[in-house]
Design goal:
- The complex is a heterodimer.
- By secondary structure, chain A is an alpha+beta fold.
- Chain A has two domains: 12-57 and 65-230, Immunoglobulin-like (Sandwich); 240-329, Immunoglobulin-like, CATH 2.60.40.
- Chain A contains nine helices and twelve strands.
- In chain A, β1 and β2 (126-131) form a beta hairpin.
- Chain A starts with a helix and ends with a helix.
- By secondary structure, chain B is mainly alpha-helical.
- The N and C termini of chain B lie far apart (63 Å).
- Classes of the chains: A alpha+beta, B mainly alpha.
- The A-B interface holds A 162, 180-181, 252-253, 256-257, 269, 302-303, 306-307, 309, 311-314 and B 28, 30-32, 34-35, 74, 77, 81-82, 130-136, 161-163.
Chain lengths: 331, 185
């Protein structure tokens, strides 16, 4: 009964280590299967010999010495058996070493062929995502959502601004830590279009649980279009209410931490809000994106995600409505 | 003898527990007092009184932030992210005055520092009211006081949140708070 919900998860592969949505995770799962089979065979043999030994000892009813050190006293059949067993263990270990060597080499080859480089910087408690490009004007900064083209090897550079976090999108790759002051990386070559959930996998403070990210794998053309669209500056507010919100956001507390492309808001402490309303969630997977939740989050972030660095800004109701209306237009 | 020893031990245990209960070091204030609970919006209470008049009473909000570990840690986060470092360096000063010495042009009490941050001061200190929330300003003030060793040693962290090659905050020497005149730098 308990296993049933687990099965349901693994079929969907939204967040599952048994997926085959990336080259790396497939290689790793093959390696895991080889380990599992070799170790299972060895373990069954050990248990079989143990049971056999116990049964035999009981039947003999007397001390049965396998190896005394005096070779002429030892049963020659037993000696050969032990030697064969030792050779089997040795071959098993060699097989595992060869399998893991080749898995490691092929992952390293994929890493050397990277076509796209992304820098993911972990913060308490959100993900800062930057798409690197030789052309600086094409460099794109976004948050908590990663778009990846299908079939393209991607190198993700992992940094941290405060404490140790761990980048884990189980359906696409294994875990890799983000360590302050160090540069780590991980390679992903997604092979299946879809939506995958990631999660910080190293306890990093009170809101560790609410530090999720979403990876959307899409065809290369769609990915390039998304990149181009995301480079555009934020939309200008059209309604009076949204214009009032624009006025507040760009001149008051919000702009100290958040960037909105095309406006005077240029803070880099918090997530980039240029296309805030196109995201699937608010505050790194804490709330689904909709108008009511934007209002709830802006009104009192500390009640939604206690401890978050975003302070409660003492907005008057009219200001709160205006800010919400403006944020909603940031598609 | 042994029963007396036991009494002493239990007394010690109770005393230790009481001491822990009394410790507000870790108390978090994520929910600031409503804006304008004690002051009118748009101004800080007068914290500097000319002449030889006695000091104004300490703002009651000081108790929430002074000697409070999370407030000091978050103040440090804001100190670097809001670029206080640009003028004051890491307390040693530069374009702006040093914050780790004993001279306080506008007062070294936490509410006086909060007023300085909120309202700004002549010769370059910008006003942060409306840019930072009140709670953030108070947290910053709590951290600024730690630069000259004012908070108690158990409130400051022996390991800075950010990577640092300096001495731990617990070893900062406590400077006397002197209200300096503006002539001295």
């Amino acid at each position: 009964m308990l296993a049933l919900p687990l099965c349901a998860c693994s079929i969907q592969h939204y967040q599952s280590t048994f997926s085959d949505a990336a080259v790396e995770v497939r290689q790793f799962n093959t390696l895991f299967a080889i380990f599992l089979i070799v170790c299972a065979v060895m373990y069954s043999l050990v248990i079989a010999f143990l049971v056999g030994g116990i049964v035999r000892r009981r039947r003999a009813g007397e001390a049965y010495v396998v190896e005394t050190g005096k070779h002429h006293e030892t049963n020659p059949l037993m000696r050969i058996g032990i030697m064969v067993w030792g050779a089997t263990v040795g071959m098993g270990l060699i097989a595992l070493a060869i399998a893991s060597f080749f898995a490691d080499r092929s992952m390293a080859r994929a890493a050397a062929n990277e076509k796209l480089s992304i820098t993911v910087t972990a913060n308490q408690w959100w993900w800062d995502v930057q798409y690197n490009s030789a052309d600086v004007s094409k460099t794109l900064r976004t948050a908590n959502e990663i778009h990846l083209p299908v079939g393209v090897p991607v190198r993700i550079i992992l940094l941290s601004n405060d404490v140790i976090h761990s980048f884990w999108v189980p359906s696409l790759a294994g875990k890799q830590d983000l360590i302050p002051g160090r540069e780590n990386d991980i390679s992903i070559t997604p092979t299946k279009v879809g939506l995958y959930r990631g999660q910080c996998a190293e306890y990093c403070g009170t809101q560790h649980a609410n530090m999720a990210l979403v990876v959307q794998v899409e065809p290369y053309g769609d990915f390039l279009k998304w990149w181009q669209d995301s480079l555009k500056p934020a939309m200008k507010p059209t309604t009076l209410l949204a214009q009032a919100g624009y006025q507040y956001v760009t001149t008051r507390e919000c702009a100290m931490c958040h960037t909105i492309a095309g406006t005077s808001a240029g803070g880099t402490v918090g997530p980039d809000l240029s296309h805030f309303a196109s995201a699937r969630s608010i505050a790194a997977g804490t709330l689904p994106m909709n108008e009511a939740n934007i209002l709830r989050w802006v009104d009192d972030p500390q009640s939604v995600k206690p401890g978050t660095k975003m302070p409660k800004v003492p907005l008057r109701p009219a200001e709160l409505n205006a800010v919400t209306a403006y944020l909603e237009t940031l598609k | 003898m042994s029963s007396r020893c036991r009494t002493n031990n239990s007394f010690l245990a109770v005393a230790t527990m009481l001491a822990l209960v009394a410790c507000h070091r870790e108390e978090r204030h994520n929910e600031p007092n409503p804006f304008g609970a004690s002051i009118k919006a748009g101004e800080s209470p007068p914290t500097i009184i000319p002449g030889t008049a006695p000091n104004s009473p300490l703002d009651p909000r000081a108790a929430d932030y002074d000697n409070n570990a999370p407030a000091i840690a978050e103040g440090q986060f804001l100190y670097t992210r809001m670029n206080c470092v640009g003028c004051h360096a890491h307390g040693g000063g530069g374009m702006g005055p040093a914050l780790m010495d004993d001279k306080w042009r506008y007062g070294g009490r936490i509410d006086q520092i909060a007023a300085t941050i909120a309202e700004g001061r002549p010769n370059g200190m910008p006003a942060w009211r409306g840019k930072l929330t009140e709670a953030q300003i108070w947290k910053l003030s709590a951290y600024v006081r730690s630069l000259s060793g004012q908070p108690s040693k158990d409130a400051v962290s022996s390991r800075a949140d950010a990577m640092s090659a300096g001495t731990p905050a617990t070893l900062t020497r406590r400077e006397p708070v002197k209200n300096a005149d503006t002539a001295g730098r």
